[in-house]
Specification:
The protein has 208 residues and is mostly helical. Helix 1 packs across helix 8 and helix 3 crosses helix 5. It is flat. The model has no long low-confidence stretch (mean pLDDT 91).
Length: 208
């Protein structure tokens, strides 16, 4: 039970950090490319790539808590064969999707492969090691994407334009977005995951 509690806090905290990191990443990646390639003759501005890259990064990151508990328990054999299946699927799907969709297809194949890996790790960690359910983890993962959308909705709907004409402005935008993303992420998790937030706060913040 104690291990389950610590894992719950760890997963909650990691998912908050992932939310903040990739909320800011999605908002700033296109402005950075525009700034970096200001004098380039070729257009490398592809918003779809930024979205797909963010989705892949989030899915890859959400496996961290499950991977950690598996490594700590020493039961890595639970997923050894499945990792081989994942790599085989990734290789084949990259050839197929890459051929038809180019770089977008490669990212789609990476998303599918890492989604498969994340699900397998979650099943192994929650189901076979912790003997816990998966609903809380699934809800938290969905909440990550919801919060990222909320943070980026002003830019998606062109309510706010990030006009970073130099690196200093870009950094200032980044600092502002980190603050806004942190506030929104904490508020969303207070509303939807109050028990985990309260437990983490009382244990590691209030105690100090």
């Amino acid at each position: 039970e104690a291990i389950n509690k610590y894992h719950n806090y760890f997963e909650f905290l990691i998912y908050i950090l992932i939310t903040i990191l990739y909320s800011v990443t999605l908002a700033l990646i296109i402005p950075f490319i525009k700034l970096y390639l200001f004098d380039a003759d070729i257009n490398y501005i592809f918003p779809t790539l930024a979205i797909l890259f963010t989705i892949w990064s989030v899915i890859r990151g959400t496996a961290i808590p499950s991977q950690t508990i598996i490594n700590a328990s020493g039961k890595w054999k639970l997923v050894t064969k499945k990792n081989i299946y994942q790599m085989s699927f990734l290789f084949v799907s990259m050839l197929i999707f890459g051929y038809f969709l180019g770089i977008n297809g490669i990212l789609v194949s990476m998303i599918l492969a890492y989604l498969y890996r994340t699900i397998l790790l979650m099943i192994a960690a929650n189901g076979k090691i912790l003997k816990a359910g998966h609903i809380t983890t699934i809800r938290r993962i969905l909440r990550i994407f919801l919060t990222i959308f909320l943070v980026n909705s002003p830019f998606i709907f062109n309510l706010i334009i990030i006009d970073a004409n130099n690196y200093i402005n870009w950094i200032l935008w980044g600092l502002g977005l980190v603050a806004a993303s942190t506030l929104i992420t904490i508020l969303v998790n207070i509303v939807f995951d109050w028990e985990a937030f309260k437990g983490l706060f009382n244990r590691y913040v209030k105690r100090k």
